[in-house]
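Morning. Coffee machine broken again, so started the prediction first thing and wrote up yesterday's gels while waiting. Chain of 494 residues, entered below exactly as on the submission form.
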Amino acid sequence: MKKIQVNVNDRKSTINKNIYGHFAEHLGRCIYNGIYVGEDSDIPNTKGMRNDIVEALKHVKLPVLRWPGGCFADEYHWKDGIGPKENRKKMVNTHWGGVVEDNSFGTHEFMELCRQIGCEPYINGNVGSGTVQEMSEWVEYLTFDGVSPMAELRRQNGQQEPWKVKYWGVGNENWGCGGNMRPEFYADLYRQFQTYVRNYGDNKIYKIACGANAQDLNWTEQVMKIAGRHMHALTLHYYTLPTGNWFGSKGSATDFDEKMYYTTLNKTLYMDKLISDHLQIMHRYDPENRVDLIVDEWGSWYDVEPGTNPGFLYQQNTMRDAMIAALNFNIFHKYSDRIVMTNIAQTINVLQAMVLTEGEKMLLTPTYHAYDLYKDHHDATHVYSYADTAPIKNSADSPVPEVSVTASVDANGILTISLVNPSATEERPLQIEIAGLAASKISGKILSGGYKDMNTFDNANNVTVKDFNSAKATAEGVELTMPACSIITLRVEK
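Came back before lunch.
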């Protein structure tokens, strides 16, 4: 029996609810034929937004949504996406499939989507092909409540009151698709662009600089050194690729063996070292830890599903992906004193999606259910937890721990413990010793299945959250046995 320790009295940082944020890019069927079907669609919608998707995202308390990209952000010109839809410019989405972008989903539609979900908008501005004036005017259009050309234009387009927009990204992946820049060049551009991202009235912008691609520590070094005092946060992007190969096969989303399963989980655990390494550099230039870290692109990236457009990045989603999500949540909690937001890629029909659609049909993926299991951690206080664990025997070539744990306490004193058993084959008996709280009332939820199990449009509930009633209170805390390949969240009360 594996022992786990939880100490309710050893309280750490707040787990910002925005750690459970999402990312919606103009890519494949994420926006069009995903979130947005248009007002005239036969699919039930409100102002063009699919009702079933909005309700699903509200259920997991989606806190913040990043838009319009991604690579698309640095070729997006926001004025093309406002005004009467019949007059909006059409453009070619050169990054993603070469399809025509008709700009029918633009600023007003995105802000309406956020209103319906009840989440914060996180807008990524265009540095790669845009201008300082263009970005400055977008902020003014959105947030200025006064007499100005942009405020008047917004009113002409039907929005009298300004919106509230806190999170603003100044460029995206400017080391790659956002301009192939050197860090020194981007850092100077960032300093220039952010100067004109103004605060209007009581709207206060939280400025986010483009950070590194995975282990590019020099990018973080140079950007922090040159521009650190001008930002509120720096980003980090890291994707889990089973093969580690960006330029060949990345591996199948559904056809993989146990060895590849463990290899994939081992690669996702690299997130821990990446965060630690980048934070050390950030601290060197920001010893007061004023600049936060945001992991605004992460998740699994596989080969697209056979027969689909390679530029649409459509992939299935299995219990392996739920494991990836949960293991990363536990890592993010560990660094919740510095990580204030993350955004999985992406919300609908792209990469490690929460929801897949096919016409009027939709399904919730195992990743969605992992988010559902962790929602009680939103804005709770991270508390000490420790698992006495070793690597899973069958994962020797790619070590993966036998169990992963995180815990938090909410404002009402309720303890939430989330546990991950990544083993493909072995159940895991656990003894949880809890200090600072006598467990008398325990409830639980579980997500489990074979590591290749998935939901399909013919069997949309093959993998879903169920009640877990097998946890028993003991004098020390709680005892339970976790099935193989499972995630369990316990709510423990006095």
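Residues 270-285 form the longest helix (16 residues). Going to sketch it on the whiteboard this afternoon.
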